[in-house]
Amino acid sequence: DAKTTQPPSMDCAEGRAANLPCNHSTISGNEYVYWYRQIHSQGPQYIIHGLKNNETNEMASLIITEDRKSSTLILPHATLRDTAVYYCIVRDGYSTLTFGKGTMLLVSP
Amino acid sequence: EPEVTQTPSHQVTQMGQEVILRCVPISNHLYFYWYRQILGQKVEFLVSFYNNEISEKSEIFDDQFSVERPDGSNFTLKIRSTKLEDSAMYFCASRTGQPPYEQYFGPGTRLTVT
To answer: What is the pLDDT of residues A39-59, one digit of tens each?
Structure first.
């Protein structure tokens, strides 16, 4: 089973920031937090990952709490094309990806 | 930008027939994976492959399934005798051996067993 808890769905207005939370209270010291997304029936797409520091790339920012028990993926200016299922996955990097149900983000005009 | 490709995009087969799903991973990647997603359900891990052998497999990956890297570029998933419940999207993924170990997924093959 997935080691993370995410809300089943969220809404966001186009152009606004989308903040997607994830709880991972049982995370181990050597485990990373990875985020992937899946746009309708396409293959999952890697977004970002982090260990304990906040991370930013061209797609998103990842904020990890100091105790590492939760994190937030931030899409700073959501567009309609960001409508997708977002998966938060905790793993040590070597292990396979275990997908949960994720959060269905709906970006509306 | 390099990407994982999969063929065919859609495969229709009759129950009991053999199917081979094909993937071309990104060229410098060393680790290869198959996942499946039954309609409306979660993405599920099937098998991982490294150095020409299976490194891990799930309970789903029974004797009806096999994987092969027949040459330097292709990675295949064979289902020997398809069942109705094998109908799903099958995704191939690959990664390098270096951190951050992110996996890159192909667009998937939709397998329909009738």
So the answer is: 988 999 999 999 998 999 999
